[in-house]
Amino acid sequence: MKEKLYCTPSQMREIEKASEEAGRDCHRLMENAGSAAAVFIMNIIAEQNLSGMVTVLCGKGNNGGDGFVAARDLSEAGLDVCCVNIFDTVSTDLAKRELYELTARRDVPVLSLEKDPERAHDAVSSSAVIVDAVFGTGFHGELPENAADIFALANSCKAVRIALDIPSGGNGGTGYAAEGTFKADHTVTFGLEKIGTAMLPLKNYCGKVTTADIGIPRTCIKSVDRLIRLLDSDTVKEMIPERPYNAHKGMYGKLLDIAGSRTMPGAAALSVRSALRSGAGLVTLASVSDVVRSLSSSIYECTYLPLKTAESGSVSSESIPGLLAAAGKASAVAIGCGLMVTEDTKNVVSSVINGCEKPLIIDADGLNCIAPCIDIIRNAKGGAVVTPHPGELARLLGISTAEVAADRLGAAMRFNSLYETAILAKGSPTFIVGNENAYVSFTGNPGLSRGGSGDVLTGIIGGLAAMGLSPEKAAACGAYIHGRAADLAAERLSVTGMLPSDVTDELPFVFREMDR
Description:
The protein is of the alpha/beta class. The protein is 44% helix and 16% strand. The chain is elongated and about 85 Å long.
C-alpha cells in the first residue's frame, strides 16, 4: 500500500526547486497544475450534470497563474468561462505570462474586481462553478477586505466551489483559517497535500481533497527531508516486529519505568500497565516504597525496584546509584510519570540522562525537571524522545503556549533542530518529529482530555522501545496505537465516560487489528 505523504508550504517550495533543477521548469509545473484543475472541474460538471458559467477568481501570484491556465483549458473544451482578477496587478512573471496568453485569445472575459465590481459580483452570483485561485499556499495573516467580500458572496451562492491547492485564507502549514476564508466543496491540491488542509479549522473549508499529479519526479519529492508520513495501521504494522512461534521474553527487551510518588501512584500504575500491554518482555517499576507496596498487590506481571523516599514524597536522590545500575540492565528507560518536581527528582532525571546509555522516554515531570536546563537532553547517549503537551513544549522552547498552539508542527521541528532529539507533540493531530522522519497521527478523540492519558502513552512508547524500536519509531507507533485504543474505548464507553485505564484495556484489540 502506497504511503500517504503531506508537506508544508516551505517543503513544497523545496520540491519545486528540486524539480526545476531536474529539468521540470516552473512554467511546465504551472501548466500541468492548471490543466489538472481543468480536468477535475470538467469531471465535477459531468458527474453533477451542471450547466452554466465557470467563474475563476484569480490572485496576483502563481495561484492566479494556475487559475488562468485552468480557465484557458476550460474555454478550449467549450465551457462558458470568465475570470475575476481580485487585484489590479499580477506580480509574478509566470502569472503575467499566463494572463497575457489568456487575454490574447479574447474568448475568456477577464474582469477586474476593483475597476468593475458590479460585473464581477454578477459573474460570481450567476455561476454554476466558482473556482478559487487567489492566494494558494503563500497566504498568511488576514484577508484583505476586497477578497473577504467576494469570498462571502461566493460562499453564499449555490454554485459548486472548488479551491486550487488550498482554500484562500487558509495556512497550509498550520491549519489556520482567516475570517472569511473561501469555503470549498472540493480542493484540488498539487503534487502533495499540504498538512494544513488536514488540520482544523482549515479542514472544514476544504471539502473533499484530491491530490493532482503535476509531473514532479518522485526523486524530487523524496529529496526533501522529513516529509510528513501518515500513520495508519499498515505503516505501524511494518515497524512492529512479529512474534515467531518460538518467541520468549528475552527477545522483547526490558523496560525500566521510573515513575510515581507518594501523591501520584496512579501515574505509575497507568504507565506500567500500558507498557505490559505493549510488547515489552519484562517491565520493572522503579518507585517509592509506598507506590511499590500499593501496586504490587494488583499488577502481577512486572517486577519492582523500591526506591528511597524523600521527605516530599518523591524519589530521593539517594536512589540514583541503584537506578543507574538498573538502567544499565534495561533495553529502554521511561522516566517522568507522576514523579513530582523537587530538587531530588531534578537530580534523578539529570543523572539518568547523563548516565544512561539506553533509549529514554521522557514525559510529564521528567520534562518539567529539565526545562530550565534542556540542553542536557543532548547527553542522552542512547537517544531519547520527549512527549510534551503544548504548555510543556512552550516551556522547553522558552515561548508562549499560544505560539506553540498556533503551529505545533513548526514548534516540534524547531525543538528537534535545536536538540537533535525526537519529539512527540501532543494534540490533535499528534506530530512526531525525529532526526530522519516526521509523522502525523489522526487517531484519538476528546476522551483523552483528562489526567492520566499521557501516562498511558508513555507506557506504550516504553514497551515498544524495549522491543527494539528507535525512540522516533516507538513514539510514532505509540501515538497511533494510543489514539486507536482511545477510539475503541470511546465506541464502547463514550468520550465522556471513558478513562485512561479503559484505553489500556483496549490495547490488545489494537494489536490484534494489526496481527501483532
